[in-house]
Specification:
The complex is a heterodimer of chains A (about 80) and B (about 625). With about 80 residues, chain A is mostly helical. Chain A is built from 4 helices and no strands. In chain A, helix 1 runs antiparallel to helix 2 and helix 1 crosses helix 4. With about 625 residues, chain B is α/β, with parallel strands linked by helices. Chain B has 26 helices and 19 strands.
């Protein structure tokens, strides 16, 4: 699941998967602005059949947090 | 069924689209709609274009529209507008019960005035198409179940604003109100709205809503760009009826008003609806031809009749080859076709062999949904229907009778005489402007320059002192073909230029093109011009008119354009018309006999230059 999340992240942010770490954040990934964040959330929700709350969305500010939250919600 | 948002984003990156010509879009809005971008790019890519969208500010819609925003509206080809009522009038949208009657009226006045100003402001800056997403009706009206009991319920009020908006846009020309409530209904409210992002970022619409909005907008874009489809080619077994006629027999197939045949009956009804708005129907079926026609002639459940079918290829050859033959039978480009079949195999084959053909897969397991699959495809849509559209089937039937006469007449001169063709040539008027615009948008083959114009553009030419737009209508003994030709002339001093000259391919091979050019010459002279210039802009489809001007006495200049000296001899119009009734004619009764035959008469070789292709 982690790989799929990273792959989607990498496509939307136009950043290679290899350059991503759990600590990659809005500060280190250049394309990651609030609009791209929305595109990412909408894509992840569809891909994994989940629905995030606004609070969860606001906290997903690092790659690690995204992987953690999505993994927790999505059925394996 | 749909591609996922992640897939769509992956398919529409800068690199994948780099080779495509741009489609300049402008987004004006008072809410955030940016996540629509991948969908805009996706649907543009479908018609071979790279969407380049520029977004106005979130809070500056009014200033951009009314005050001017050349950077946004300067070069645009299409303006998409979202004015969400919540951000235009919170009171009408959410504080409705807090308004006294007179306050509500005052607020409505303010809102209507702003809508008009915004619309007019955009139009002042660009002639491009305006696609305006209308107001959503409240799902839970302010007065609850009492909303409909009085005269001024919230739904009625907002409905009224939508009507006002439609009227204002219609008056503007080339501007269309998109019915947001249809989109809301198709998507469903839960998927349409995204309350989280409305609160976090003033982005009210969910992913599916944005996809459906982009899809709706591109129905207009396709039509205005001349990419709409013209012919639906249908498989027969398990598409028009349930079962296989060759195996189940006439009485064994499922078709009628009760389940399971009702799924096919309703599908046919929808096909017929498309036919009545101008879509040509073709059959492309692996079958014994006689079996299929027997169903058409004898099955009581058939809504479709032989006369609705413009072309049929019913045999055991591969469908890709048959689709190509259907396109050539109808004088259409292969990319005018949509192919519908229940077989995954045939659908894949056509996708691979002829990617230009759009396909609709109609799985027989879910035949009950086939009617909706067809109705929602959007490939045949056109923003306005002309009289010609609704009569197209009839027009093709008349063509078949002409063909019989051609065979019977023996020689062509007597054939033309027996057709009793009359032409009516008029300056563009309120009645003909939409049809002229439509012709520029959809004519591909007999079109010298293939410039696509909106009704607003045509009105511009008609009203300009330095231009004329004319229409040509053809009648013959078999009926009225309607407006089938148009030309636009632009004048610069004593030089006239043919900006556009086109003819529906239905009427080629009858010298109508010569008559139309003759009118252009006549008109240019009347406007005091000494030269007439024509150009040929090659496309993949208009090769047949490459020699149009050079075959008619125009001199090819070094710059590749064609020039006619108007002080010299005019190109001849063959005497095949019973009457040419022209507004351009200086003679008081507006009548003119066509001029004498040129030398082709004597040689007995009356073959028109274009044969029947077109």
């Amino acid at each position: 699941m982690r790989e799929r999340i990273l792959e989607i992240f990498s496509r939307i942010m136009e950043t290679p998967v290899e350059s991503l770490t759990a600590d990659s954040s809005t500060a280190t990934v250049e394309a990651w602005d609030s609009l791209k964040h929305m595109n990412l959330v909408l894509a992840l929700e569809e891909e994994f059949g989940i629905r995030l709350t606004d609070e969860q969305i606001m906290k997903m500010v690092t790659v690690g947090a995204i992987v953690g939250t999505v993994t927790e919600l999505a059925p394996a | 069924m749909h591609k996922t948002y992640a897939q769509i984003q992956a398919e529409t990156g800068e690199k994948q689209l780099a080779a495509l010509p741009p489609l300049q879009l402008t987004v004006l809005r008072n809410v955030m709609v940016e996540p629509i971008e991948p969908y805009l790019r996706y649907y543009a890519k479908q018609i071979g274009l790279r969407a380049v969208a520029r977004y106005g500010g979130y809070n500056t819609l009014y200033q951009e529209a009314v005050g001017g925003a050349p950077g946004l509206l300067g070069e645009t080809e299409c303006v998409l507008v979202w004015v969400k009522l919540e951000n235009l009038s919170w009171d009408l949208a959410r504080n409705f019960n807090g308004l006294m009657a007179e306050e509500r009226e005052a607020e409505l006045d303010r809102v209507r005035a702003q809508l008009s100003e915004i619309a007019a402001g955009i139009r002042r800056q660009t002639r491009a198409a305006i696609l305006w997403f209308g107001f959503e009706l409240p799902l839970q009206p302010a007065l609850g179940i009492a909303d409909g009991s009085g005269e001024a319920g919230q739904r009625d009020i907002i409905d009224g604003l939508n009507r006002y908006l439609r009227g204002a846009l219609r008056e503007l020309g080339n501007a269309y109100a998109i019915e947001m409530n249809a989109i809301l209904g198709r998507v469903g409210a839960n998927a349409f709205y995204d309350a989280r992002y409305w609160h976090m970022g003033r982005a009210p619409y969910g992913r599916e809503a944005l996809r459906e909005m982009a899809f709706e907008a591109f129905k207009y874009v396709r039509a205005l760009k001349g990419r709409r489809r013209k012919c639906l080619a249908l498989d027969c077994d398990n598409v028009l009826w349930g079962g296989i006629v060759g195996e189940d027999g006439l009485s064994g197939i499922k078709l009628g008003k009760t389940h399971p045949g009702s799924a096919y009956w309703e599908f046919q009804q929808e096909v017929l609806e498309l036919h009545r708005r101008g879509v040509l129907l073709a059959l492309c079926s692996k079958n014994n031809e006689a079996d299929v026609w027997e169903v058409f002639d004898r099955h009581p459940g058939m809504l479709l009749r032989r006369e609705h079918i413009a072309a049929a290829r019913i045999n055991w050859e591969d469908k890709a080859a048959n689709l190509r033959r259907i396109a050539s039978d109808l004088n259409l480009g292969i990319d005018s076709l949509v192919f519908a079949d229940d077989s995954e195999f045939e659908i894949q084959l056509v996708r691979e062999m002829i990617p230009e053909v759009e396909v609709i897969h109609l799985p027989k397991e879910t035949a009950v949904e086939n009617r909706d699959r067809l109705a929602s495809c959007g490939w045949f849509d056109t923003p306005g229907l002309s009289a010609e559209d609704s009569r197209r089937g009839e027009l093709y039937a008349a063509e078949a009778k002409r063909e019989q006469l051609r065979t019977a007449a023996g020689d062509l001169a007597s054939y033309y005489a027996s057709l009793e063709m009359t032409l009516e040539i008029r300056f563009a008027s309120e009645f003909t402007i939409p049809r002229i615009a439509q012709l520029t948008q959809k004519t591909n083959q007999f079109n010298l320059t293939t410039r696509r114009y909106s009704d607003l553009d045509i009105r511009g030419f008609a009203e300009s002192e330095n231009a004329d737009a004319i229409s040509l209508r053809l009648r013959d003994r078999f009926g009225d073909a309607g407006i089938v030709g148009a030309a636009i002339l632009i004048y610069l001093g004593e030089a006239a230029r043919i900006d556009t000259l086109l003819l529906s391919c239905r009427v080629l091979g009858r010298y109508v093109e010569d008559a139309l050019l003759g009118e252009c010459v006549q008109l240019a002279k009347l406007r005091g011009c000494r030269t007439l210039t024509g150009e040929y802009a090659p496309t993949a489809k208009n090769g047949q008119v490459r020699e149009f001007y050079s075959a008619r006495g125009f001199r090819r200049r070094d710059d590749g354009e064609f020039e006619l000296d108007l002080t010299g001899e005019a190109p001849k119009v063959p005497a095949v018309f019973k009457r040419i009734d022209s507004e351009m004619n200086p003679q008081p009764d507006g009548r003119r006999e066509s001029e004498g035959w040129d030398e082709r008469t004597d040689s007995g070789d009356l073959q028109p230059h274009y044969g029947n292709a077109g």
